[in-house]
Recover the amino acids of this structure.
């Protein structure tokens, strides 16, 4: 049996495969908190795995080959991310500076290489 | 030239240096909540979230979801990576695969919530008071909460954090609505560049949070191993990326720790 979106509709799908599988970790954090120390080895390892997964999400987004973002050459996307990161470091780890520089770079690159 | 001065209160007494705030008569929670809310909308994260969710709103539009569905997904899920996965895979993958990808992207909430909850310990706190702080926790709220909560009286922390979370969440909802509205009306190339807000905000806010070597190493290895795993096409890319890169980073961290503790 292979359930698809059309079998359940977007609202039920939102609850079933969006809200529940996401919220369960927050709930687990709340329920397990008595037993776990922030600095325990298991939490340290779990945090490293979570951080690496987040990096994996980021790589997928930047290198994505579908959707409107795929219209921008992949070299431009990677270059803009690098420029954004450089600005972030230069501006003393400012999230705003990094995001703004990366976004401006991707706009300039998209204009330059596709116009 | 700067002239150093003591902070002087209305009564003319110099304030003591920063200690754990002493217990004072509790102020009404709506007031504390409002303080948290306004702290949130003055935070840089508010504007990053608007930009990030403009990208997400545009993505939801592109995949054919409705305006209210997008807003509800922000209220209920409140995690940009999980929402990106949900929106971009729901129309093509099976529901089991989508649920698995969403849940794998959200594991970070377990340690985040677990590290946060002890900050709320106060006399008279009930378990159900912690449900909203648990739900509003996301990377941005957590970073600001960990930074700001220790400065506030314990009795005010739940209301303040709920305000902080609601403020940042409203930025996300405004951004999502804006992106949804703009996506159909903008030139396609501009819409594409708006989608770039999501990875940029994710990148910078994670790196800001990553101060320890372990976090940086895990992040860098994940960036390198993620595309490799995707190229090898095992399936469950994110889970393998997390387990492989995270475990290597953790092993290096342990090795360094043991080297440090071996020295006198």
């Amino acid at each position: 049996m292979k359930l698809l979106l059309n079998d359940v509709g977007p609202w039920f799908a939102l609850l079933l495969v969006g809200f529940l599988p996401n919220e369960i970790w927050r709930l687990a954090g709340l329920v397990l908190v008595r037993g776990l120390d922030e600095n325990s080895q298991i939490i340290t390892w779990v945090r490293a795995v979570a951080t690496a997964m987040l990096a994996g999400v980021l790589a997928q987004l930047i290198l994505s080959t579908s959707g409107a973002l795929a219209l921008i050459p992949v070299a431009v996307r990677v270059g803009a991310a690098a420029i954004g990161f450089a600005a972030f470091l230069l501006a003393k780890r400012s999230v705003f500076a990094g995001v703004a520089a990366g976004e401006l770079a991707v706009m300039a690159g998209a204009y330059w290489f596709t116009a | 030239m700067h002239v150093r001065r003591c902070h002087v209160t209305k009564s003319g007494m110099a304030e003591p240096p920063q200690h754990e705030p002493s217990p004072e008569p509790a102020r009404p929670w709506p007031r504390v909540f409002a303080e948290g809310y306004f702290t949130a909308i003055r935070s840089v994260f508010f504007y990053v979230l608007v930009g990030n969710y403009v990208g997400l709103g545009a993505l939801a539009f592109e995949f054919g979801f409705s305006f209210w569905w997008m807003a509800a997904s922000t209220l209920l899920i409140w995690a940009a990576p999980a929402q990106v996965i949900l929106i971009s895979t729901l129309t093509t993958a099976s529901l089991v695969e989508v649920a698995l990808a969403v849940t794998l992207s959200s594991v970070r909430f377990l340690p985040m919530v677990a590290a946060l909850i002890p900050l709320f310990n106060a006399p008279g706190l009930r378990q159900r008071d912690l449900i909203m702080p648990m739900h509003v926790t996301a990377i941005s709220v957590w970073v600001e909460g960990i930074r700001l909560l220790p400065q506030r009286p314990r009795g005010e922390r739940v209301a303040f954090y709920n305000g902080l979370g609601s403020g940042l969440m409203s930025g996300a909802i405004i951004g999502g609505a804006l992106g949804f509205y703009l996506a159909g009306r903008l030139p396609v190339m501009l819409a594409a560049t708006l989608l770039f807000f999501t990875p940029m905000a994710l990148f910078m806010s994670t790196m800001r949070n990553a101060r320890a070597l372990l976090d940086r190493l895990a992040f860098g290895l994940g960036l390198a191993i993620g595309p490799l795993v995707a190229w090898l096409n095992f399936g469950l890319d994110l889970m393998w990326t997390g387990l492989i890169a995270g475990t290597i980073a953790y092993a290096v961290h342990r090795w360094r720790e043991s080297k440090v503790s071996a020295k006198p």
